[in-house]
Amino acid sequence: MKVITFILSLVLMAPAFADDENPAKELLLKMADAVHNRNFDASFVVVKGKSMEPYRWLHAKQGNTELEHLSLLNGAGLEMVRIDDQVTYFEPQSEPYSIDTDSIAGPIPEVLFKDVERLSQHYDFVLGGKGRIAGRAAQLVRIESKDEYKFNYWLWLDAESSLLLKSAYVNHAGEMLEQLQLTHISVTEEPAALLLEMLNRKFPTPLPAAAITKNEANTGSNNWQIGWLPEGFSLLKSDRHKLDLNNELTDYYLYSDGFVEISVFVQRPLPGRRPSGALSSGATTVYVHNSGSFDVSVVGNIPAMTAKAIAESVARPL
């Protein structure tokens, strides 16, 4: 009887222990620390269906200064440079510009390099199996959505350095929709020469990101009512502007749950009534809804049913 009582007490204590110590979350925190403090030179590809985008990613810590360089290697190219809390973007056919921010807006969700604890209300951190990625021993960590309205996100971390080796958006059937795969990584003692050269370059005066968000959020945010969003999403910014694609005036809203961003565009119907429907590329869904008096487009790394529900919930304020 005493043995049974002892075993029962252990079972009752187990959930509290598991809540206090989550090995999957600890690995994610170690990855964030490694990304900010290690010197590395990596190449990776982002695979969406039949398309593939190659990148080169360099990072270094020179004294107390953090240096990062991310470049898209195909097409006209795209270059992003970060020195501590300033990021400069060099885009084709436009003037370079700088922003006061501590993260590059690249293909890896920024929150993964920060405190992932903020995601714990709407996502679970689950330890998966071990494998081999890019010739290195890897540990799988799964970020699982607590509802069906968002995709899951899986990461394979280098067992030695804690750096990211592979990641994927995964639907609730376990299918990988979009993958990021490292093809090469070199962890070094000294920073790459390219990064050290950045210290001597002159960059544009940064635009305060907080000020931009504040101004945009106060423009056009009351023109429409978004009646439904998955739990955890809040408005980051909104504005009214003309789309480059068709020069049409649109009201724009950007929402985030800290991990996924959702863009909502509302505009007058275009000539020729278009049926409502969704298009997908990798994990990205574009859902267009024709309400009769206005069109709604929802774009984000979310399931089509989620985009459809958001689009159909848009209405004029009462």
Automatic annotation (TrEMBL):
InterPro entries: MucB/RseB_C, MucB/RseB_C_sf, MucB/RseB_N, MucB_RseB. Residues 1-18 form the signal peptide. The keyword Iron-sulfur does not apply. It holds the Pfam family MucB_RseB_C. Keywords: Periplasm, Signal. Residues 24-191 form the MucB/RseB N-terminal domain. Transmembrane segments: none annotated. It comes from the Bacteria. It is found in: Periplasm. Residues 220-314 form the MucB/RseB C-terminal domain. Belongs to the RseB family. This is MucB/RseB C-terminal domain-containing protein. It comes from Pseudoalteromonas rhizosphaerae. The lineage of its organism: Bacteria, Pseudomonadati, Pseudomonadota, Gammaproteobacteria, Alteromonadales.
